[in-house]
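Aim 2 progress update. The chain analyzed this quarter is reproduced below.
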Amino acid sequence: MALFRNEDHVYRVIGEFMKIPSRPRTGEELHNWWGQHPAYKEYGGEVEQINRIGEQIRRSRAAFVFYVTDPKAVISIDARRPKPGEHYDVLFGRGLDQPDVAIQTTGDVAHQFWGGNINVPLALVTGKMKAKGSKAKALQLLPRIVPAFPLYRRYLELIDERALLHALKA
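Predicted structure tokens:
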């Protein structure tokens, strides 16, 4: 059985997570989102880390489309021409014209990827992930988003996605 119930579940978890660094964030904003959650603690440096990830993606000036199967969902990141005050756009349910990279994978593999459990070159070779477009741009993006992997686990805890968090530990 797939980890995600439907496309809305993918958008609510992975999509919303990808939106967090899409513009500069503040500690107050994070506190307003999750401050009432019993697991919320301010570790320090997280806001800077989120903003650094967003800035790195913005500097890529690239567009990426993630085609998720099982369940079917599409999430696009467009850093080609960000709006003032933003690092990049995140779109749900539609691809982009001429993305630099299009990645296709299952929802379960996407979840494991964001949890830091996937070796991307191996996943590409074995077909767990399929990439079209600039492999160089794809490999440039990877080190820019690796710092997000521990944040994804924390995010799952804060949005009460215990089953998804458990699936990363299994």
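The radius of gyration is 15 Å. The mean pLDDT is 91. These observations will guide the mutagenesis experiments scheduled for the next reporting period.
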